[in-house]
Every structure is written in C-alpha cells, then in structure tokens.
Design brief:
By secondary structure, the protein is an all-alpha fold. The protein has one domain: MetI-like fold (Orthogonal Bundle), CATH 1.10.3720.10. It has helices at 3-32, 50-53, 59-90, 93-104, 111-122, 127-132, 145-169, 173-181, 186-197, 199-214, 218-223, 231-241, 245-282. The chain is globular, with a radius of gyration of 23 Å. 28% of the residues are buried.
C-alpha cells in the first residue's frame, strides 16, 4: 500500500463524519433557504430570494450578536489572560493542578443553573437591593445587554483560559530570565517575549469563544428576558414556534456567511502576526 493510500485511509473516517454531520445538514439548510413556508408551517419547495430579502426584519438580532459576541470575547480575553499568566508563569507546580480544577469547576454545573444564579444576583433582590443601601435606587441590571454580557463571559471564560494557559506553560522560562539579564524591564519582557509567544493560545481561545457566542441562545433568553436576543434566539423562534423553516434557513445561512468571513479575516491577521513574530525572533 502506498503512502498516499495510507493517508486517505487515515483521513477517510474524519472526512466521512464531516460530510454526514456537517456538509449534508448545511446543504439541506441551503436548499431550504430558497423555499417558502407551507400554509401550516414547515417548508415548500421553491426557488425564490424572498427569504433573503426579508433578512432586515431580523436586523436587531444580528446587531445584538455582532456587538455582544465580540465584546464578550474581548472581555473574556482581558479576564482570562492575567489568570492564565498567573497559573502558567507565577504559580508553583504543586498548586497548578488545584487551581486548574477550580477553573473547571463551573463546567460541572449546568449552564442553565448557573444562568438562573445570575438572574438572582442581577435581579431585584441581588445587587440592585444592595445598591439601594448606598442610595442608588432604581438600578436595573437584569434583562439588559450588560446582564447578557456578564452571563456569556462567565459561561465561556474557561474556554478562553485553557488555550492561553497551554501556550504560556510551554513558554521557555529561560527566555524571560535572559530578557531580564539583558536589562529589559518586566513590561518590556512581557510585550516583546511573553505576549508574542502566546499568540497561538490567544487565537485559539478567541476562536472557540467567538464561534460559540455567535450561535448562543440560552444565556440571552434567560438573562435578556426576551429584550436582548441573539440570532440563535431568532432561529429557535423561526424553526420551533413560527415554523417558518425557509426564513429560518436564510437567517442561518447569513449567520454562517458572516462567521466564515469574520473567521477568515481573523485567521489571516493571526498568520501575519505569527510571521512578524518569527521575523523578530530571527533578528
């Protein structure tokens, strides 16, 4: 058996899985997006662009998603990086495992339960009631974009921490020592050595969080209270309640296109940063 045949055999199971579980469902959604809604709901075969022409009707959902998903990703990065840096660089080996387990612990509880906990914390008997003792009345936190942002950052923070932690943990500590020996200040060492060497972890973490947030629907439904909804909430409404499968498919295809364009641009930027980092390292 040739090497090429062996490679095809190794790739075949994953390729078949992707075709069955990804390509075929997306193909069905693509075909449905050009159809029409049946009188009793569902799908009627047709070839029309009417569903795509009606996309502005869901503009609010797209706006909320395209604003809060990047903001949530950025907020998670700003919180996760110092935590991952502390775990990977500043923490002794005997404490790393325990602290990493503490980061994982929230995943042991359903996101539904954790979201309900935030409903209480941000609701009238939570933080707003506490602020009333300091003379701050009528503070509303629940069912706002801020509440949704808090929920998505809390829910997806571990997915941002671990890729960054892995990248920083593989960092050769001798590079940091050499930078200090050469007279570089801690901030200079961080921006010239640590941060560039952790770009791969940042890229992976941001990609994981951003893609999942673009399809999120549970956290906006609970913490947004029907006032702040994502495209995922619109899809649930169109497919399960309105039973407008054709329009829902068009909305889904537009979301996929937006994600593909965004991820492609992002990966090209990361690739350029990696090239610049390698050039600096060679110098």
């Amino acid at each position: 058996m040739t090497q090429r045949a062996r490679n095809w055999l190794l790739v075949a199971p994953a390729g078949a899985w992707l075709i069955v579980m990804l390509v075929l469902p997306l193909s069905v959604v693509f075909v449905f997006s050009f159809g029409e809604r049946a009188p009793s709901g569902g799908y009627v075969p047709a070839f029309t662009f009417e569903q795509y022409a009606n996309l502005p009707a869901r503009l609010t959902a797209f706006q909320n998603t395209l604003i809060l998903a990047p903001l949530g990703t950025l907020a998670a990065l700003l919180i996760a990086y110092p935590l991952a840096y502390q775990l990977a660089v500043r923490t002794s080996e005997k404490w790393k495992t325990l602290l990493l387990v503490l980061v994982i612990v929230p995943f042991w509880t359903s996101i539904l339960i954790r979201s309900y906990a935030w409903i209480y914390i941000l609701g009238g008997r939570g933080i707003p009631a506490l602020l009333e003792n300091f003379g701050l009345d009528d503070v509303r936190l629940i069912y706002t974009p801020f509440a949704v942002l808090i929920g998505i950052v809390y829910g997806y923070l571990p997915l941002m921490v671990f890729p960054i932690y892995v990248a920083l943990d593989r960092l050769d500590k001798r590079l940091l020592e050499a930078s200090a020996d050469l007279g570089a200040r801690p901030m200079t060492t961080f921006f010239r050595v640590t941060l560039p060497m952790s770009v791969s972890g940042i890229a992976t973490g941001c990609m994981l969080v951003f893609i999942l947030l673009m399809g999120e629907f549970l956290i906006p439904a609970l913490l947004g209270g029907g006032k702040v909804f994502f495209v995922g909430n619109a899809l649930v409404d169109l497919f399960l309640q309105s039973r407008n499968w054709a329009y829902g498919s068009a909305v889904a295809m537009m979301l996929i296109i937006i994600m593909l364009v965004t991820v492609t641009i992002y990966m090209r930027l990361i690739a350029k940063l990696n090239v610049q980092r390698d050039d600096v390292a060679l110098m």
